Amino acid sequence: MFDNLCKFLAESFSEDYAAWLLGRPIKLTKLSPTELSLEPIRADSLILEQSDDLVLHLEFQTEPDENMGFRMLDYRVRVYRRFPQKTMYQFVVYLKPSSSDLVYQDSFQLGETVHCYQVIRLWEQSSDIFMESLGLLPLAILTQNPDPTVKLKEVATALDRIRDRRVKANLMTATSVFGGLVLSPEFIKTILRSEIMKESAVYQEILQEGEQQGLLKGEQRGLLKGKLETIPLLRKLGLTTTEIAQELDIDIALVNQFVANQGN
After folding, report:
1. Which of 79, 148, 165, 223 is the most exposed place for a label (fewest CB within 10 A)?
2. pTM here?
3. Angle at 22 between CA 181 and CA 29, to 5 degrees
């Protein structure tokens, strides 16, 4: 879900992300991996956007990946093959703190070939620009700050000022999901209004993803398993066990049992 959420934000607020990463608010459009001739290495984490003269490649990561350097080189070559005239900018954005040396890796060497890219560790970033741009607001909770609870309250205040209810619902849902990386669902619910989140496209996608995963696994048992696997995300959004049972149309005892097992 983090991959889908990052894609949604980067594609819906491309100018905000261009301003942050490239220093200028360029209007970008989605570039499909299928346009690069070969199948992507890992399409679920890949964000490619383009303008007339550049391609922006983004990878958001919750955990370090030892294959990241090769992935960056591979996509650089693929884009050059398809768009040799375009400049390419590549960023790996790590969402949560890690003690691994991999989060500092910003190059890949293969024989005499050396490829460099840019790495951003959100927990080292000032929150200023994130608080000033709608599309970056949900990530502000993960930036450098001494107390994430205070930052969440600041983000909630900024979200309340948004007049477009659809935009507010989507950004509030995204904030709740990212907030779950550093704060408890119970606390998040005291700050963010869960009822408006249910109107968001992100929220509906979470529910649909659970059903689709279940259908892929086959029959009624698979559908139930898919719904159960959606519970952690709904808890991140601050829903109670009763509300989760209602949303997923399953017995509350199943929800409580699943939550208890996760705690163990």
Report:
1. 165
2. 0.80
3. 85
